[in-house]
TrEMBL record:
The lineage of its organism: Bacteria, Bacillati, Actinomycetota, Actinomycetes, Actinomycetales. Residues 129-139 have a biased composition (Pro residues). Residues 1-50, 120-144 are annotated as: Disordered. It comes from Actinomyces gaoshouyii. This is HTH-type pyridoxine biosynthesis transcriptional regulator PdxR. It comes from the Bacteria.
Length: 477
């Protein structure tokens, strides 16, 4: 082993900073193997090279350094640690001799032949279980097999071949195409400047609520979409179930709420539509009470939807949430929000840039009419799925769009037990109770399931399994 030259003490008789720094306890592992200083652990009787050996050995055996990882050059590591290069060279040579490292033309690496180890979790850290595979009939799962067409793959290849960033509010071309898409599918003309690109409907809701002057009370439909209801809670908003009747939320229920989250075109999860008279009444009430109406237009591409509240008049402020999760795939992580003129700047300041490759791929897909053609195919397949569902559950309610359906259970049925039996059968259904807010839980039991991720033939098989698991005596009709 090469001799090591000790650092001289300073005037106060203490070791120099180089020696003290190296003798500190091991720091947290660097973000990349070899990207930070390897600090030796103080141990009586060990020289600096031996401590470097011990530190690298511990990182290899604990999995922090993996087989094949490249280590810093001896010169760079010596400079980072504040020690002589000879100490590092000596340590590397010993570890090469022991079979932990190997010297290559590309530098010193951990021997690739060593077994790969999983780094130990920090003490007290919760164990992370692998995400379960999506279960059949899980609500909200679209049929992604229909998405990956030749055009879809070509748009992604082109976007990846020419990556570019975009402003936080989104690509100008994509915003213009979204405005045209909304005009054609929702029959309303919108200034592209009011459209901001988001990471999905939840991100859009977060942006809108964060841009409002202060947190307050938000009215929510009861039942409603649980995932969206989580956002106001996290932002400190109080939630109040909106009083409703067969036509939807009542205009007088907007009194005393700063915002209201609505799905007038496809009320969740049963799929009812709000009549035009009620829409105009809600707009008038919102104008009077100063309530911001936030419309979730989550699956308008999958059915012939009436125009959104934006097109019903300008008497009240309206924000419109849009997403491609239902029409294409949740894995896309892309959406948009239309905000009132007075909130555009405040919302834009809070936008976080969405991947430029994702935006450019969707820009190409929209420009070449891919979304419209895909949606037309999806609607045809959805009609077949709804027919299959009604043949198995005649009293059920399938939502147009195919992502959800409701199976009503007879009064008094233990909904939780019914869901448990379905889960035991390998099905990912949910209980209707989970769609009600805490304050206004409904009294009628039911099962919520998804129809969109299977072929009609496979769907029938799964629905037969569900009917058997629930028990025919527990199902209405």
């Amino acid at each position: 082993m090469m001799p090591h030259r000790q650092a001289p003490p300073d005037r106060a008789g203490r070791s120099t900073a180089r020696r003290d720094r190296f003798a500190e306890p091991a720091a947290a592992p660097p973000a990349e193997p070899g990207s930070g200083p390897l600090r030796g652990r103080a141990s009586a009787g060990q020289s600096l090279p031996q401590r470097i050996v011990a530190d690298i050995h511990q990182r290899i055996t604990s999995g922090v350094l993996a087989p094949g990882d490249r280590l810093p050059s001896s010169r760079r590591l010596a400079a980072e640690l504040g020690v002589s290069r000879g100490s590092v060279v000596s340590a590397y040579e010993q570890l090469v001799g022991e079979g932990y490292l190997m010297a290559t033309h590309g530098g010193t690496r951990v021997d690739p032949a060593l077994p790969r180890r999983v780094p130990l979790a920090a003490p007290g850290a919760p164990a992370t279980a692998p995400a379960p595979a999506p279960a059949p009939l899980r609500p909200g799962s679209p049929d992604v097999s229909e998405v990956t067409s030749g055009l879809w793959r070509a748009t992604w290849r082109a976007a990846a071949a020419d990556p570019r960033p975009h402003p936080p509010q989104g690509s100008e071309e994509l915003r213009a195409l979204l405005a045209e898409h909304v005009r054609l599918t929702r029959r309303v003309t919108i200034d592209p400047r009011r459209i901001l690109v988001t990471a999905g409907a939840r991100d859009g809701l977060r942006l809108v609520l964060s841009a409002m002057r202060a947190t307050g009370t938000i009215g929510v439909e009861n039942p409603g979409y649980p995932s969206l209801r989580a956002i106001p809670r996290l932002l400190g908003w109080r939630m109040r179930p909106l009083a409703r009747d067969a036509d939807g939320a009542l205009p007088e229920s907007l009194e005393g709420v700063e915002a209201a989250l609505l799905t007038p075109n496809h009320q969740f999860p049963a799929g009812g539509r709000m009549p035009a008279v009620r829409r105009h009444a809600l707009l008038a009430a919102a104008s009077s009470s100063g309530t911001l109406l936030i419309e979730d237009d989550f699956d308008a591409d999958l059915h012939e939807a009436p125009a959104p509240l934006l097109a019903s008049g300008t008497d009240g402020p309206v924000a419109l949430l849009g997403s491609f999760s239902a029409s294409l795939t949740p894995a896309l992580g892309l959406g948009w929000v239309v905000v009132p003129e007075g909130l555009v700047d405040d919302v834009a300041q809070r936008c976080v840039p969405v991947s430029g490759i994702v935006q450019d791929a969707m820009t190409r897909y929209l420009r070449q009419d891919g979304l419209r053609r895909h949606a037309a195919r999806a609607r045809r397949l959805d009609r077949k799925r709804r027919e299959v569902f009604l043949s198995v559950f005649p009293a059920g309610t399938p939502m147009e769009g195919g992502l959800h359906a409701v199976v009503p259970l007879t009064p008094g049925t233990d909904e939780a037990a019914a869901v448990a039996r379905a889960r035991t059968a390998g099905l990912g259904v949910e209980g209707l109770a989970s769609y009600w807010s805490v304050e206004g839980r409904g009294g009628w039991p039911g099962i919520v399931l998804g129809l969109g991720s299977r072929s009609p033939e496979r769907l029938r098989e799964l629905l037969d399994v569900l009917r058997e698991a629930l028990g025919p005596g527990n199902i209405v009709g």
